[in-house]
User: Fold these one by one.
Assistant:
Number 1:
Amino acid sequence: MQENREQWSSKTSFILAAAGSAVGLGNIWKFPYIAGENGGAAFLFIYLICIILIGLPILNIEILLGRTTKKNPVGAFVALSDSTFWKYVGVLGVFASFTILSFYSVVGGWSIAYTYEALIGTFNTTAFDNPSAAGKFFDLKNSSAAWVLGYHTLFLSLVVIILLSGVRAGLEKASKFLMPVLIFILLILVVQGLILPDANKGVSFLFQPDWSKINGQTILLALGHAFFTLSLGMGAMMTYGSYLSDKDDVVNASYLVAFLDTIIAIFAGLAIFTVVFSSGYDPTAGPGLVFHVLPPLLSDLVGGYIFAFLFFLLLSIAAITSGISILEVSVAYLVDEKNVPRKKAVLIMASLVYLAAIPCALSFNILSESTFDFQGKPFTFFDIADYLASNVLLPLGGLFLAIFAGYFWGIDDVIKNLLVGESNSIYFGNSIAKSKNFKSIFGFTVKYICPFLIFLVFLYSIGWI
Ligand code: TRP
């Protein structure tokens, strides 16, 4: 173990940073539109079950692996197992970190671009009269490679600036400042949404399930999203966990992070659907919901200029605190395994991600015709990166994690390590890990339920079922 490895200054810092990683574009951009397309409340219900049944155990294991080994994903597996196979599972995580960030950084760039457009008042011009005009504006902007690349560069630069300062002065300070701002903005947007006429239609869309909407596909989509939204399956939570001290408990912290992530996704859904329904629009707008439908609707409200600006600021903050956690995985890998000094590691990995993201950024202009047929649909580089990460690499990473914990590390050892630091749980009064039946429920879930369900998602994702 490195003597001088940095640690979070407190458990609260870890929780804010981990929540910052979890709360991202997944909550504010993705969750509302996939819930919109898949029946609102019915989807929410299945998604909650996935978070509890699969998300929480895997989150516990990831953070625990990090805290126990004090290493990046590659080093963590190496520390606990002799087989090179597990080392490559860690390498898969480092590869996933590139893949995710290559498209994440493009969407993060759009968020910053729209924050700027909101600020200079573009949303109040005729270009944003209605969602279809706004869609045209979006396409027009994206047809310029320089525009997309420019904002992607800006986004990645912000991530780099934070990472260069290290764990405490960078990751921790950014999360401690940005997460409260994010929650504050979100609360303003929820309250303003709830007082709109017909807001109740948006609320019931999110809370009144229509069970006929649930099918195999909904379940698999919900499970895939549970992984993405909790930042699981590639070692991001493991890396954050590696900066925890053994005095800090894992189980209660995981519950809190998952709770914050879920409540923030629901609030984002409320903020968005109240506006959409109150304006009489369709909630099933797909990925364009946030960039096409919302700007004209938000800016039509009383005080719309400020609400539209706040919304995109919220989206940008969420993207940045997640982006740093994605890149940190590969940075920690270089620092721990190759002894590269931190600043140099940040610059090397950011340059590589920068290059990897170029085809994704050009997918909307120069390379828009370069598509690959997959399951009967044309996929651009951007689509491939998104699909590969969310539907293949993350579930695969999660599957290996569950198998590793359940069958190689062993549930007894997992529980023994989980109990370290548990007496210091400060948030729920007493420790969940020490409660009766925890071991049997946790063990059963990790050994049987997680591998089985994740394997199903994986088969479905690659088109085999
Ligand atoms: N959870 C983030 C979101 O919802 C994205 C994210 C950050 C992520 N780090 C990750 C996804 C690691 C998978 C793995 O937007």
Note: The radius of gyration is 21 Å.
Number 2:
Amino acid sequence: MFEIEIDSNTPLNVFYDTLNSQLASLLGGERDLICNAAQFSAFVMQTLPELNWAGFYFARDKQLVLGPYVGKVACTRIPFGRGVCGAAAHSQQTQRVEDVHAFEGHIACDSASASEVVIPIVYEGDLIGVFDIDSPKVRRFSQADQEGLEALVTTFIESTDLEWSF
Ligand code: SME
């Protein structure tokens, strides 16, 4: 249903624009946080090549707690400031790491991971959590990938009720 043929001649920004339209359509009509977080993780894993993990950590009392994801089992809690996810949470800036083994403090949940992008999810100035994407390939993510992934996360934020409520 959401398979995308990647033509190696297609510029990455066009590829991500296509993905973003499909994502808006996938998430349209549903605003539940857990539901959309699960769908978004699966959508990213299904449409982007060379990934081994994609998913969420949500901010809880100065820690990140594991949320919906696709991939191998992962660390459940990460303090703000620890690892790549903690750096994204602490700084509220996207972290793009070309080689995780050269990143001091990297937390190896899946030993296959070699490069990583972590994008903070900020709503009305508050940190809601982070979206983490891992690849088994060193230097998998370019600046264009980062911008494309940030645009996908923006669509997720706009499509979802981010207030936590049970
Ligand atoms: N590598 C991350 C931890 C989360 S896992 O990759 C799923 C980090 O250093 O924060």
Note: The mean pLDDT is 94.
